[in-house]
Input
Amino acid sequence: MRKIVHIDMDAFYASVEQRDNPALRGKPVVVAWKGARSVVCAASYEARKFGVRSAMPAIRAERLCPQAVFVPPDFACYKAVSKHVREILERHTDLIEPLSLDEAYLDVSCNKQGLATATEVAQAIRASIREELSLTASAGIAPNKFVAKIASDHRKPDGLFVVRPERVLSFLTPLPAARLPGVGQVMAEKLAALAIHTVGELRAVPTPLLVHKFGRWGLKLAELARGIDDEPVVPSRVRQSISSEDTFSEDHFLDELGPTITRLAERVWALAQREPRRARTVQLKLKTSDFQTLTRSLSPEAMPTSAQSLAEVALALRDRVDLPPRTRFRLVGVGLAHFDDAAPSPQDALFRADAAVASDSPRPC
Output
């Protein structure tokens, strides 16, 4: 039986801003650039009380919480704090699978400190984060990854929740089916059409029927409903893509997306210059007003050598979209994917390892 811990920093970006600026403490903080096209990166718990959430258009967040304090993101600082958190995690295990800057899975079936239980490991990690970084983290502990992740959200913020092996089914039973990994809005609606709203109701459906309805994904649903997840913690997950996307406050026609695509290409270009490997594919992602997602990709013989040329490829991919002309879009994204294993030469202009994305004078973290 494995012992899995999911560590999740509480309102990470916003909490760092409140830590570093005492004037922001206790106030509704929204980490985002102001503007009609900006998206919320993070919201403090004071802002979440008003319904503000990550990935929400900033203009909507401003309507929900007019008194919110908007702070532009400082990713260089957040990355430095995340690195310190990683150092704390590594004191306990080498089996660490980061999901983002602010959360990770740990397999502590055997831990470096010789602590008796996974609960003690999680408590020690949370205490170190508090003492060394003046931040809080929540933890979920369970026999597998997906249950641990759900558990870490159970007593946020600054909480710890343990799901013992014999309690997995009773823990999952009353939860909405949408809490299961991979069950998004569309799948939740499909399940609701079958009168399946909770994990318990999903578990009661015969597995052959789920397979008939949803194919191989139906088998996975049946396993998740029973708390079955054999996926191991993967300690070295190699980045497969770099992307940036925007969700609009109002839907747009395809021919109106040019400026946003150009801006996203510039952002992806800046991110890509920190990646030592070479991408081979340019991707464009679109989501229609009725939530249909489509992607277009191209692996050219000569990859773009500037943000402008990356934007040109992305705009060419837009021209390959064959939908009715009055189709409106709510989201657009630009990405690079399919990285080579070998690092490029020092002269490679696309992925210079020493290029700076952050500001010239990042604040100390």
